[in-house]
Amino acid sequence: MKHLFYTICGLAFCFVISGCASTDEADSVQVAEVTRSVFYAPFYAALAEGYFEEENIEVELTTTWGGDKTMTSLLSGGADVALVGSETSIYVAAQEAADPAINFAALTQTDGTFLVAREDLSNFDWNDLNDSTFLGQRKGGMPQMVGEYVLKQKNIDLKNDLTLLQNVDFGNIPSAFASGTGDFVQLFEPQASTFEKEGIGKVIASFGAESGLVPYTSFMAKESMLEKDPDLFVRFSKALYKGQQLIQNQSAEKTAEMIESYFEDTDLDILISSVERYKEQDSYASDPLLTEEAWQTLLDIMEEAGELPDRVPFDDLVDVDIAKKAMNEGG
């Protein structure tokens, strides 16, 4: 009987250990990204270097191609985290959503688009856009609003000085320009550099350099998710922070090699030039903390574009505690 007792206890102990081991399984986090771009290099670097795995997180990444589709995926439960323009959280809040999308980690801090001309304008002046056809981005999205913001600063009347096209789907804009639509187009990297290499167009200006700091692309989750498991999002932000610091402290060549697997159809030299452009204009946020000053700039840009439904307070849609804790623990 004594031996049987010890045997049962041993089996029970093994069962407990086995049960404990099962709780160590990685947390699966489904991330929906609005597009695939070198603009998001710190995130891809964190993935490539295994930083999320170190935080016991398994990331399932899906590209949803457009802010509306990305936010729909988040709100419907198709994704746990959305990587998308911060303006989308304001649109959702304006609809009095019961479970709003909350920005918890910043990824980029400038606009990520470049002005590409069909011809090489070595002595470019913004007035060269007058009487031209400008292939812009989706109405109400951050690229288009920043584009309009910059053009207005350059005293360009969007209704009278040029023809603005906004009827092309986000994912089809590059192919539309390549097919002959527009004299100028607003593009992210690596598409802009690819067009240069192929002789389709020439990068002549940066909207990010012209518009200044703004919380352009952020990671967000539904408020209920953040409240349910805040530690998960702190760990997520810690992994991201490691990637952000890595990008800041290494060469564009090293970063390009690191993220190459996320751009299988893009040559390494294009990735290098793309990373260099973004680093030169300080597009990559060095940490996940969103600032209230940049948030107010975002509201100003949206208001200037006539797309701001309400000046939603910073504290209503931004959770800085998660980023701060991640930085403290990961520093």
Automatic annotation (TrEMBL):
Chain ranges passing through the membrane: none
Domain SsuA/THI5-like: 41-250
InterPro entries per record: SsuA/THI5
Keyword annotations from UniProtKB, A to Z: Signal
Listed Pfam families: NMT1
Top-level taxon of the source organism: Bacteria
Localization per Swiss-Prot or TrEMBL: Periplasm
Signal peptide: 1-21
The UniProt record lists the keyword Nucleus: no
Entry's family note: Belongs to the bacterial solute-binding protein SsuA/TauA family.
Name under which the protein is recorded: NitT/TauT family transport system substrate-binding protein
